[in-house]
Every structure is written in structure tokens, then in C-alpha cells.
Model the fold of this input.
Amino acid sequence: MPSPSSHPTHLHPSELGTKEYWDKYYQNDLDNADVDDEDDIEDEDQPDPSELESWFDDVGAPAKTLEFLTSETFPLSPNYSSDGAGRPSRSHQPTVLDLGTGNGSALFALRLEGGYTGRMVGVDYSRQSVELARKLARQYISSSGSDGDEDPNADSSTNSRTGGTGEGVISFEILDLIHDTPSEQEWWPEGGFDLVLDKGTFDAISLSSATVTNPATNSERRICEMYPAKVLEMVRPGGFLLVTSCNWTEDEVVSWFTNADSRRTTTGNFEVYDRIRYPVFEFGGQKGQGVASVCFRKTASESQ
Done:
């Protein structure tokens, strides 16, 4: 197990860490998915986000993630009840940011099956991914019986509203998580998001050979080394980050996102809030999980 003050060993770069790979991947989905055909989902049918391809399907991660985020014990859950007395009334619906959104399936599941009704934004650096997610939103959200006042089928629209208020917008936007500044985007909520999801994005970034200059040390570093601090700035104080990885162990994920060096340029820090449990396998006398999901909560720095 790595020490608290050091990062785990870097992953060897592969094509899975390149933008070119994901552009081709989602372009293939666009070419093969006739998502604009109104006959695909009949008006009386409820769309099922689980039908969409998702990372970690083989270990049931999407279902386990949804179960965790909608449990009675998770503070942002629509079903949260600290004393078991029932659902709370909220004046503010939690905002959700999906990093590396892919086809948008995680947000569709939270909205259609999980009861999350607040503002949702899915971001990806692949234009093809964002285009696919927007098309699927027009299919899935408009077929769910929502009564929003925006037209999800409008070609110029990036939004799909599923509620009667401005908080209920789902949008998909192009964003480079390393080189762009999220807080400068029009869709950015003041203070950051209540819930940020990473379902394999850190894995992909860890497989990239790209480097950036660390402004704190003026040295070249792999972009995965800068990623935790970038994500920390996207979460509001008291908010949550849920990271799912198949390339890093649970202990390694914790080390990456709680290491002091990762948060040197920002305020606050991540602390482990909870973990999602998966089936355990044993090989060569060692026990482990095929995937790790760790939920962090952002706390204020000691200087604040």
C-alpha cells in the first residue's frame, strides 16, 4: 500500500488515453445508432438507461452506483433520511457534473430512475461524445413524459429540461478537463457542483502520455498528476466526488485524491466518505475487487 505522502506508480500509456481513440469510438456509435428514429421508443414505453453501453457493466457498477446515490443514507439522495422519518423537503436540488460523460447514460439513470431533478451537466473532450449524448437526450428525456419548456429535439439546443423549473436542465458540453477552466463556462454554478461523477475518466487520463507544466514547480508532469486538484475545484465545499476505477486499487484511488501534493494549488481537500462494495475474488492468496468505487467529500482547508 502506498504511503499517504506518495503517489502510486504511474500506468503505462496506451491508446485508451488518447483523444483520437475516443473520437473514433464515439463516431462509430454515432454512425451505428439511429437515435433520431421516433419508432425506436414508442410513446407509451418508458426508456431504460440500462440499455445503453456503460463502463464497468460486467461488474454491475452502474446499478451499484445508482443504488448508492439513491440510498436513504447518502445526503444528496432524493430518498435521504437522517432519522428514518422519510424523505426531506429540499429548497435546493443537488447539481450533478458527469466527467467524461460518454453517451450520458449515468445522468439519464439519475434523472429517470434515481429521482434527481436538479441541474445536470455532462462534459467530455470528445465532440463526438457530446453529440451522441445530446441526441440520446432528445430520445430518452423527451420520451420520459417530462413537461419541460425547452424542445430537446431542436438542433440548436444543447439542453433537455425534465422539470418545470430552471434547476431541471440536463446539458452536455465539450470541455477539456486539464486545459479548460470550468468556472469560466456559462453553465458553471457558483461555488461548484454538489455531486461530481468520474466513472473511468481518471483511468483514461492515467493512460495518457501527455504532460503539462505544473505552475507551482514549473516542472513537466503527467496530466493524471494534475487531475485530482482540477477536480477538487469543481466540487463545492461539502459536496461529493464519486470515482470508479478498474485500473487503480481502492487504496491507490484514495492515495491519488487525498494526497496533499494533489491539492497544493487550491483550498479544501478530499476526505473518504464511503466506498461501494463489489464481489471479492481471491488469486494467489490475495483478495481484491475487479473495480473500485470511492466516494469523497470536500472539506474546507485548515486555513479557512
